[in-house]
Amino acid sequence: MDTASESRIIIPRLKPSCTQCQRSKKRCDRGKPRCSACMRYGRECIYILRDDSLSLSSVESTPVSPVKTTQESEESFHAVFFLDSVLFRRSMNRLPELELSFQDSLLNYIGDITSDRDFVHSYFSTIHPSMPFLSKKKFTERILNPLSPPRSASTLLIATMKLLADQLPEQGPRCKAYYLIKNSLLEAESSCSLELRVLQAIISMAIFELGHAIYPAAYLTVGYCVRYGSALGLHKAVEHYYEEGFSITESEERRRSWWAILVLDRFINLGCADRAFLMTDPSSNSILPIDDAIWEENREINAPVRRLFEPPTTAMGRFSLTAQSAILLGRVFRSIHEPPFSEAFWQNDVKVLDSTLVALTSVSIEEGRFRGIGVCSPSTICYRYAVDEFPFAATETFIPQDFKRDIANGMLQLADAITSGDCTADEITPFCIEAIYRSAVFFGREHSRTGSLSEATSCAAVKEALNVIGKRWKGASLYAQMIDARVVTGIL
Fold first, then answer.
1. Is the Cα torsion angle 217, 223, 227, 228 positive or negative in sign?
2. In the chain, count of helices (H) and strands (E)?
3. Is 368 exposed, middle or buried (0-12, 13-18, 19+ CB in 10 A)?
4. Where are the beta strands (DSSP E) in 40-115?
5. Phi, psi of 275 (to 5 degrees)
6. 27 φ, ψ (degrees, to nearest 5)
7. How many Å apart are CA 471 and CA 465, to the nearest integer?
């Protein structure tokens, strides 16, 4: 096939034309087209592709060098954002918004949110109370508002919220919608965009994978949250109450998103304390989330500023206590794995940690009672530390056995409420499942030590509750299987 034929196939209506003389072409010995004038004067033809519909002057004025496309410009913006932040801040200062073309199957999964908002109500009544990193008021006014222009980042967030709010599909958590959203998040990463709404969608995906025990995806997604949040500079919202360029409400939402990531980073390592945390502990002067009630009422401008060094109180709110419990977990693990300066120093450090654990647990339980919350996430997270078999028998030395027993009995009461139907599986968040499982291990250990039939009955009751929760969160069913494995093998 000659060159002219190739040009007609690749770029229709475009034909090669010699820039030297625009004359008709002939062929040289090697089959390449040459115009008659160039052949006569012994010069080489230089061709460009031209459209016959264009005039000669327009062809001659066409630049030969490639023009930078919009995509290339946006890629350059992001390169400067990471390579020279000062230059970026003082020249461009704003990254382009995310623009994606979603598959019809994903849009069909979301549906018409103007008429079908059941999943939104379900999300804010079941998932949101334990991990309130979204501003409900802003979400309603700016994302659900039919007058608001549709944005790709908001569409991704809505999709992950629906995935989290929906009951466990018949095909399991690794359903079609799960993979559609995962692929869309990957496309969002490739689009060179950094937006808070995209990060919040990734956080929601991490909670979904954690609750359904989708590993190692859950662990890797949490790591993705850490890097994405760091790129957005969310750590500044924790250190400074007023962020330049953000309102108080926006700063609080960024701050809560950062704390949500830290909680996920600590919680994802509960089953294996040997893994290193991806996020370092914040300074003692870091700002905690404001009281949840004030946050829901959108009165954050009047909220008192709480710092991490302050002792826990019921006025702080559940999410603030959850953040403090996550910090406590990091310190417990650090006391376990770092070589002590001296045995006496280590003993005193562990005693302080255990005393803090007891105090924080008591406050979180009281906070739950005060606000009418049956299942309080910080108390269940604290319980996980109190009953686990940490090395050096630290908890055996300082935490009273009666304290462990009281909390284990509290988890048993919760298990009974779940199996009886007084507490539905929707009320249980993924952050509570680990503590419920550890209570079963506690009762199993006590049965192995004493041979008491009541301890075995309590262990079986907790296992039954986990199977009920498994209808909502698949991870709970896996925990129930691990109880059987521990009992059979004697690893208690």
1. positive
2. 23, 4
3. buried
4. 47-51
5. -75, 140
6. -115, 140
7. 10
Convert the pLDDT of each residue in 435-483 to its tens digit. 889 889 989 999 999 999 999 999 999 999 999 999 999 999 999 999 9
Distance CA 91, CA 186 (A): 29
Q: Alpha-carbon distance 465 to 433, whole Å?
A: 10
Alpha carbons within 13 angstroms on the beta-carbon side of residue 226 total 17
> Within 13 Å and on the Cβ side, how many CA atoms surround 42?
0
Query: What is the Cα–Cα distance from 457 to 436, expressed in whole angstroms?
Result: 15
Taken in order 144, 118, 376, 206, the sign of the CA dihedral is negative
Residue pLDDT, tens place only, 334-364: 766 665 554 554 555 555 555 555 555 555 5
Q: Which residues contact 440 (CB under 8 A, 6 or more apart)?
A: 459, 462, 463, 466, 483
Please give the Cα distance from 3 to 251 (Å, whole number): 61
376: its two tokens: 């309080």
Rounded Cα distance, 137 and 368, in Å: 24
Sign of CA dihedral 109, 113, 115, 121: positive
Q: Let me know if 327 is exposed, middle or buried by CB neighbors in 10 A (0-12, 13-18, 19+).
A: buried
Q: Which two tokens stand for residue 113?
A: 């949110």
Establish if 28 belongs to a structural domain.
Answer: yes
**Domain containing residue 37:** 3-60
Exposure of 304 by Cβ count < 10 A (0-12 exposed, 13-18 middle, 19+ buried)? Answer: exposed
Q: Is residue 365 part of a domain?
A: no
Q: Are strands 47-51 and 14-18 parallel, antiparallel or unpaired?
A: antiparallel
Spatial distance between the Cα atoms of 89 and 456, rounded to a whole number of angstroms: 62
Is the C-alpha dihedral spanning 391, 396, 401, 403 positive or negative?
negative
Q: Which strand (E) or helix (H) includes residue 69?
A: none
Number of domains in the chain: 1
Q: What is the pTM of this model?
A: 0.77
**436 is written with which tokens?**
């419920």
Residue 37 lies in a domain: yes
Nearest Cα neighbor of 269 from 230, 203, 223, 305 is: 223
**26 - beta bridge partners?**
34
Q: CA-to-CA distance for 233 and 258, rounded, in angstroms?
A: 9
Q: What are phi and psi of 33, to 5 degrees?
A: -70, 135
Length of the chain: 492
Cα–Cα nearest to 374, from 129, 17, 176: 129
Q: What is the pLDDT of residue 96?
A: 65
Q: Token pair 């969002």 is at which residue? A: 188
Question: Looking at the domain assignment, is residue 10 inside a domain?
Answer: yes
> For tokens 């059941």, what's the residue?
118
